[in-house]
Amino acid sequence: MTFKHIISRDNSLFKQLKKLAESSRERRKLGETLLDGAHLVETYLEVFGEPRLLIIAEGESTAEVSHLIQQLADVPTVMFPTLMFQELAPVASPTGILALVKTPTISPPEAANFVLMLEDIQDPGNLGSMLRTAAAAGVEAVYLSEGCTEAWSPKALRGGQGAQFTLPIIERADLVGLASNFAGQVLATTLRGESIYKLDLTGPTAIAIGNEGNGLSSAMQKAASHHVTIPIAEGVESLNAAAAASICLFERVRQTL
User: Fold this and answer.
1) For 146, which DSSP code?
2) Strand (E) positions, 151-202?
3) d(Cα 240, Cα 257) in Å, to the nearest integer?
4) Which helix (H) or strand (E) holds 121?
5) If you ran DSSP here, which 8-state letter would residue 23 be given?
6) Which pLDDT belongs to residue 243?
7) Alpha helices in 96-194 (DSSP H)
8) Where are the transmembrane segments (predicted)?
9) Which CATH superfamily is domain 4-102 in?
10) What CATH number labels 114-255?
């Protein structure tokens, strides 16, 4: 295979890729994002086909990355020196391969029976973890509020490990309106509420998880049909938002087995 070797930070393609890696506005404007690592690229390939561009780092690569590069020999490929590549990667120890892809769009079902609503989640790693859990639990649609971090950032994609390629994800959603019109029960996770283990979750259910520090807004709590909590040991203030989401989602899974 042949590839273009770029060594200057003044190169227009490098500047564009760096902007894409760092700016959610740029990703939304172009409808593109960057995938980091062979696993994400392979998963995207299986679901949506070839990426628009491969980006590789100078130096030795793993057998997995080398195989993927050979498999995608017809895809335009650029190589950057290690330090320049690291400026594009979302982690401190990059895997040596990135891919430029079109941001997928998956439409939600008309009447979803199992929904996750996320309000103002700030950490992209947390969001990615929640999306990964939601996909594993069989959630049919995930709605993100206006204040949520972006689902398609490189860090959220890495945390999701392919969840974004199978889940209908609707960003900048009106969660209060959705909760008010949901044809089923809407559970607002709070520090004080009914134990989630005492509720019947076998019917249409939406689970709302709030901001890591402040929880759900008062408006969202009012729109919910139930306030629920996860019983925890005395003296422990609360659970991480991603952990709380996992427990709630899989309690619903347990009840519907």
Assistant:
1) T
2) 169-173, 185-195
3) 26
4) none
5) -
6) 96
7) 124-137, 154-160, 175-181
8) none
9) Ribosomal protein L30/S12 (3.30.1330.30)
10) 3.40.1280.10
